[in-house]
Amino acid sequence: MRSPASSSPLKAVLWDMDGTIVDTEPYWIAAERALVEAHGGTWSHEQAMQLVGQSLTFSAGLLQQAGVELEIRQIIDTLTAAVISSIKQQVPWRPGARELLEDLHVAGVRCALVTMSEGPLARQVVDSLPRPYFEVLVTGDTVSQGKPHPEAYLTAVERLQEADPDLAIQHCVALEDSAPGVAAAVASGVATVAIPHIVPLPQDNRYTVWESLAGRSLSDLDALLRARPASAAPAGAASAVGTARD
Questions:
Q1: pTM (2 decimals)?
Q2: Does 204 share its domain with 103?
Q3: Residue 153, phi-psi category: left (phi > 0), alpha (psi -120 to 50), beta (remainder)
């Protein structure tokens, strides 16, 4: 554990789940295709790519447009159940994710899960890990606005602050794989690392791009925060934390 006197600016890491910790996108795509085809439609790779990183409500709306004659809630429940079933058979871990989680745990760096998947699926993944790495879980069914809106990230910081009022936006790093997720993290003011997976992400000075989490450690995240200009976080980000949820 790091001592309280540690000069590291890093206090918390905010993790996306799908595509960052676990490679569930093939499970989601298979579930989407099966559902659309069951309603007589077709589901292309291009259509599936539009849903990567999006909120489930948004995704369900596009599935309705593709011919699924179910209510939004029914679509979400059907897809989630299918993905949970697949995960129970095999958890598709992303390279380096579990190793980095362990490194942070040993060092005493707090972790929050920030995912647009709903609670049952998030808990299935979290329960598959060897330790209780995540102190906070923010899921798609606990926020009013999904990614790319920053509410989920601001909510995670707010909840982390409950145990450490001195924790602020500038003490956090977000790990994301998708364009909506990266947009949400950047908009919250949190230093953001993009680890592209299914969909390529362009280089951008608002975030850092890593090819993989494999071989990455606490020292990499710490160095990223140390190199970040103090003015990098939006001026309103910190004050917005307290009002992220109604």
A1: 0.84
A2: yes
A3: alpha
